């Protein structure tokens, strides 16, 4: 080969390296400090979440560094962003630029093949599989079964008592609904074991990923392994039922996922089924139970809104014969109740924020987010922005009379765009059915005057929201 040509070929990669270095150095990295190795700002954020000072922690960060800053959380270098543009970046970027990227602790506990970790075609394939069971057309047939679970729960835990603690009971209810409708696990030893594993597993979801004996992270990993073994047993049993052709493909979520295969639909691997069942357990359990709990608190604090919800629900109850289950048509009449739920989600979003990962260098807000860094975004920063929601601290369900008036990517309790939560409709049905029976069967008073809450990492009201309950006289038909 010509020596001059050889020399040119050697110069080409050097040229590209120099251009890349120059481009990176010409761009500004976000301001901020990475803190101590591994720990970074993890402990200070976790302390703020537990002490109910998260908003102050974020405001101080914004005041010090501006709308974008670098930090280190849960073992990963990250960039904190917030606002409408940040939400749009997170929810509209394709999987080749910004990927789902949960903290290492969450990823290890839930599994690498869960929907929050997948991107591109894998994300679409698994999401479409989940939606095939969770879409409204399918969920219509489960309203009656959910009604039965709620009634049974109230008979066991609310009737013939004068005081209850709402959050733990709502968690019991939502977990039983998940076990029954999504996993086909009946009441008994296996469901109890799954509950225990799940509770231990949740404690380490946002923790520093140091896997040493007696750490919260280590205990959560062991609980996750136990839960995954139970799910694998369920998968084996349901596969046998399908092969014997004795099971409906839509009798529960696991059976539905096992049934997906054919010319147009690729089958899910066992890991994908297991890891997404784990994800559904987390997403479907805590968010709905927290929403219902905070609605109970807010309804007691606002008699006018309570009266509107009670009127709507009692009108529906009076239209039913004794013992008749709620139907999909009944849920469509609960418009005001759902507006109250949406306003609750605006003021008290159960999910604090989330993480993504930059697969390429990303230019945002005049700064460089380097490839490989995490992106940490926070929901509540737009929900409580006075430029978006007038008097944001005021609880006002009328904001949702016309959701089209809310600017896009500003109200995101369930995500947005292609990343919107596939369980949105399931959560809506669950919430409306539970609230219907609570307000038509009981009145209540708050036992705790301190209305603070903490995040561990999800919302927990002070003392779990203890209330004194009084049964209502059921309407005669």
UniProtKB/TrEMBL annotation:
**Localization per Swiss-Prot or TrEMBL:** Membrane
The record describes its membrane topology as: Single-pass membrane protein
Just give the chief location class: membrane
Which cofactor is essential here? heme
Pfam families in alphabetical order = p450
Q: Which GO terms describe its cellular component?
A: membrane
| Biological process per Gene Ontology, one example term | sterol metabolic process
- Gene Ontology molecular-function annotations: heme binding; iron ion binding; monooxygenase activity; oxidoreductase activity, acting on paired donors, with incorporation or reduction of molecular oxygen
| Coiled-coil intervals | none
Q: Does the keyword NAD apply?
A: no
Q: Which InterPro entries match?
A: Cyt_P450 (IPR001128), Cyt_P450_CS (IPR017972), Cyt_P450_E_grp-I (IPR002401), Cyt_P450_sf (IPR036396)
Q: Give the UniProt keywords, A-Z.
A: Heme, Iron, Membrane, Metal-binding, Monooxygenase, Oxidoreductase, Signal, Transmembrane, Transmembrane helix
* Residues bound to heme: 421
> Secretion signal: which residues?
1-26
- Which family is this sequence assigned to? Belongs to the cytochrome P450 family.
Q: Know the name of this protein?
A: Cytochrome P450, family 716, subfamily A, polypeptide 1
Supply the source organism for this entry: Actinidia rufa
Taxonomy, top ranks, is: Eukaryota, Viridiplantae, Streptophyta, Embryophyta, Tracheophyta
